[in-house]
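Private note to self, pasted from the team thread so I don't lose it. Backbone tokens:
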């Protein structure tokens, strides 16, 4: 049952508010394993909705699901130098395959005779094991493209962890594709980024910026990383999804070639793309308030909850008759409904629980409502209530859910717009970045400049705008730090 001790306000301590909300709304908790989390049933139900919505979209792009091993031979990671360098410090390593009883009777110990001939890496990402597999799948142009995805867990040995945002083990999906041409692979990487952006905005109600990562922020082993960036309520950026054009790097590392129609051998071209349970963190920090979660209806496990208020069993039965009829209508419309007639808590307690858990619409019916043929409808996004006639209530609720979805998105978009501004000097930049938000600035295109700005302000280039960027324009300008020429602004922010 939810914990209703009042949340720390966002204004008082945003980080503490977030940590409290994750636990009190029954989303997740710390586990007995250092750096790992337990995702609780309610949190997992939201993740399942994310999963099913994305999976459907992937399959529309021709993607098929598969599963690849959790353990990767250490030698595989050595084949792509940039890739291994990017992940080397985060790898957990399996060295032995057996335990034995402690001779001194103190439980079990690692059997020193059971050392592996070659150490195995718990996957931080799966490019290497997948490309060693693709070598067996690809011989001719007829075998291409390969469009695979897997839903799985990965491990990156994070030292400073935070539920959903940064944990040693987390859940994600990773897509890995193989193509005959560079153009086809690049197009597919951009297509999958569009899939992520559409999902983030239409389902999660999170406005995102699409762009390309700078070389400093690029995925290890990629030629290009496309990304979507979201803004949290504290003005920090959060990378919500990435899609990578890998070129032929992994194909060359694992000697994956195909015979062309012209009977020539060519290396294949690759992409990879993924989102993770970080999206749960993005969801919380984009929409939620000091009362708890605010869930967009398209994502909420329960979209409408019905709570009867009754004095006796007869009254309860009469209300439940009305609720059951309405629930059947709503379910036929594809709306996820719950009737809470349990006697374990008072109606007031239930109201507080569903508010904390972010259920978009709450319906209550008492004796007077029963007589009048009305219900009380409460909106989670605005915290407003109104009394509505039962006549045509199903259609009303269907349109209300869409109104709430759009309102939540608009609120987040308006916030981002207000916190996005152009900055032209480094002195102004250093002051403005303290206020949070996205700063649009000219940059000379060098990694050295970005590194110095990061060292001095903690800000990084979140993305380099592309043509699909809102208000995209090329304009002559001067780098805020070096004064060297620049042809467009990039997005700086402090990020999670």
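Design output:
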């Amino acid at each position: 049952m939810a914990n209703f001790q009042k949340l720390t306000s966002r204004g008082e301590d945003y980080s503490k508010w977030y940590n409290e909300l994750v636990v009190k709304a029954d989303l997740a908790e710390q586990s007995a394993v250092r750096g790992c989390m337990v995702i609780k049933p309610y949190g997992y139900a939201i993740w399942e909705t994310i999963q099913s919505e994305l999976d459907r979209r992937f399959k529309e792009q021709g993607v098929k699901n598969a599963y690849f091993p959790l353990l990767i031979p250490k030698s595989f990671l050595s084949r792509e130098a940039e890739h291994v360098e990017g992940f080397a410090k985060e790898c957990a390593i399996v060295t032995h395959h057996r335990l034995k009883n402690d001779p001194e009777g103190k439980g079990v110990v690692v059997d020193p005779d059971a050392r592996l001939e070659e150490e195995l890496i718990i996957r931080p990402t799966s490019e290497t094991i997948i490309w060693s597999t693709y070598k067996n799948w690809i011989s001719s142009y007829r075998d291409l493209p390969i469009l695979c995805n897997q839903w799985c867990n990965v491990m990156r040995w994070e030292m400073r962890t935070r539920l959903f945002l940064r944990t040693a083990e987390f859940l994600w999906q990773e897509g890995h594709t193989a193509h005959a041409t560079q153009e086809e692979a690049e197009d597919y990487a951009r297509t999958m980024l569009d899939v992520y952006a559409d999902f983030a905005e239409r389902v999660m109600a999170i406005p995102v910026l699409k762009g390309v990562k700078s070389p400093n922020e690029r995925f290890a082993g990629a030629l290009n990383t496309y990304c979507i960036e979201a803004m949290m309520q504290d003005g920090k950026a959060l990378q919500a999804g990435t899609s990578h054009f890998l070129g032929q790097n992994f194909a060359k590392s694992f000697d994956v070639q195909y015979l062309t129609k012209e009977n020539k051998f060519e290396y294949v071209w690759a992409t990879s793309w993924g989102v993770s349970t970080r999206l749960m963190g993005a969801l919380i920090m984009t929409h939620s308030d000091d009362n708890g979660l605010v869930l967009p209806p398209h994502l909420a496990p329960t979209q409408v909850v019905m709570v009867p208020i009754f004095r006796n069993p007869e009254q309860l039965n009469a209300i439940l008759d009305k609720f059951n009829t309405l629930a059947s209508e709503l379910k036929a419309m594809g709306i996820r409904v719950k009737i809470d007639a349990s006697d374990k808590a008072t109606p007031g307690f239930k109201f507080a629980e569903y508010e904390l858990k972010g259920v978009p619409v709450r319906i209550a019916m008492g004796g007077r409502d029963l007589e009048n043929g009305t219900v009380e409808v409460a909106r989670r996004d605005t915290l407003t209530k109104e009394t509505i006639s039962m006549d045509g209530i199903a259609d009303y609720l269907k349109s209300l859910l869409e109104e709430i979805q759009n309102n939540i998105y608009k609120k987040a978009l308006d916030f981002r717009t207000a916190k996005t501004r152009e900055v032209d000097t480094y002195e102004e930049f250093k002051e403005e970045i303290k206020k949070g938000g996205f700063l649009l600035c000219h940059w000379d295109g060098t990694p050295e400049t970005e590194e110095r700005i990061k060292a001095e302000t903690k800000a990084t280039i979140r993305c380099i705008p592309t043509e699909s960027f809102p208000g995209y324009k090329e304009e002559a300008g001067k780098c805020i730090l070096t004064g060297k020429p620049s042809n467009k602004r990039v997005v700086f922010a402090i990020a999670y």
